[in-house]
Amino acid sequence: MKRIFLIATIVTYVFSADAQTGTTNTTGFKAKETDAQQKILDKGKNYDVNFDIANHEAFFLEGEDSLFRYIYSKIVVSKEAADANLVGNAMIGFQVNFDGKLKEIYSISKVGFGIDEQVIKELSAVNFVPATQGSMPYRSEVVIEIPIKAKYLYNIAAKKD
Q1: In which element (H, E) is residue 138 found?
Q2: Whole-model pTM?
């Protein structure tokens, strides 16, 4: 019985070793000569070119800094928030529609003291440039993080008055 097992093991080993040294691959695909020739680059052509098909994500036309300045100028920070030295990031998510209007604006992480609600209210009046693929606009999801320093914003508002 041991001899039969030993012979079966040797035969299996020989056939498996032969199968691995064969010229066919596991996918059965055999490259053609023309496939190898296509990989050779033509001399004199400039291959260092970026092809831009005008794909971009949604963005605020005047820039992110302008958006933040607009929001900071509109929100009212309470004296309690300034006294508490509130510092944090208001993370707001929203959808930019095909026409650039924002919809479904929501707060992901809240700062507190009613600041998030004011930011959401002010963002609802803003338009973005919609995301495009090629030249076709599409609805996209955007998340922005707005740094809030309550004492600083409270002092700026106090200087305006």
Answers
A1: strand 136-138
A2: 0.62
Superfamily (CATH H level) for 64-160? TonB (3.30.2420.10)
Enumerate the domain spans of the chain.
64-160
| Contacts with 56 (C-beta within 8 Å, 6 or more apart), sequence order | 129, 131, 132
Dihedral over Cα of 113, 62, 49, 133: its sign:
positive
- In angstroms, the Cα distances linking 13 to 1, 2, 10, 18, 21 are 18, 16, 5, 9, 13
Chain Cα centroid distance, residue 108: 16
In a 3-state reduction of DSSP, which class is residue 127? strand
Distance CA 116, CA 127 (A): 19
| pLDDT tens over the chain, length 161 residues | 667 766 767 766 655 655 555 455 555 556 565 555 555 666 777 666 665 566 889 999 999 999 999 999 999 998 999 999 999 999 999 999 999 999 999 999 999 899 999 999 999 999 999 999 888 899 999 999 999 999 888 887 777 76
Alpha-carbon gap, residue 85 to 17, rounded angstroms: 73
